[in-house]
Amino acid sequence: MKKIPLTIVHYNNEDPATTTGGVQSFAKGLKLIFNNVEFMTPQNRDLKYIWNNQIPVVCDNQLVVDFPGKFPVIGFQHGVGAVKYSVTHSKGHRRLKRAQKRAAKRHNTLWVACAEWIATTFEQLYGNHTEQIIYHPIDVDFFDAKLENKNSRLILHDARTKHKGSALMGEIEAAFPEWQIEPLNCKPEQVPDRMREARAFIHLSRYEGNSIVCNEAMAMNLPCMFTKVGLMQDRNRPTDVYLVDTDKMYNQRDYLTEEVRSFLKSINNRTYNPRTWIIENAIAQVSQKKWNQVMIHFQHMSGWELGLPAD
Fold this sequence. Notes:
This protein is α/β, with parallel strands linked by helices. It is globular. The longest helix has 19 residues, at 284-302. Helix 3 (81-88) runs antiparallel to helix 4. Helix content is 39%, strand content 16%. It starts with a strand and ends in a 9-residue tail after the last helix. The strands form 2 sheets. It has a 6-stranded parallel beta sheet. A 5-stranded parallel beta sheet has the order 8-7-9-10-11, with helices on both faces. The protein has 12 helices and 11 strands.
């Protein structure tokens, strides 16, 4: 696949070269799409370099305000702070909510989101229109669905915090001792091999934007059990997964155990194929077409000559 012949800057508080996380994974994934992706943070932001070379900047949503108003920027909406705060009630997420509200008012900004529900919610809350929905591209050669899980009793999860279901996984582990309920807990480059040995993947989060690890599990073609959050709220959501009600999972213990039991039984009785959705919606070739349209729009909005066709 020929990449979009541009250099872009990804701007975030954390450097994807030295830290891990969803936004960092997204930033590194842009290298599948563009010829060159440079990483900047508030510590090494170089406005003169960006302006003089007319380099498009893709900002983590609330950070678009770090750039003077004359700078055209692309604001990428990874999630909705207001919704996340309503779940976690943390001070950090309250600050995120306020920062996103402020960022939504910035002019000279082209908005892009990683899920339809995010774009719709921002428009309802703050009135800012999202130009394009671009699902996170998954490298399906790396996440190749070549499973080695015959007779496996391993069920993986990524419940790193309370709102991602850490307490629920403890209950599930106690209720189903015949299964190995374990966290993913490995380096990013080791994730495919870790998933390769699993029988299924469970993610019972109370909030997600568009979870990259869930997309990776689907790309590996694992049977997946998800709560109806994040991507699972989109009209074009994956359908070949086992979906459960979020509130009931957190508030009704009988519902939790019954649904997990039903899911574990379904592993042997149902052929799950979530990888098909990933290939149709969330690979580099699909994302690239949408990013190309974003860059053409950005070229028109900014007046910068990026060398892209008019349409």
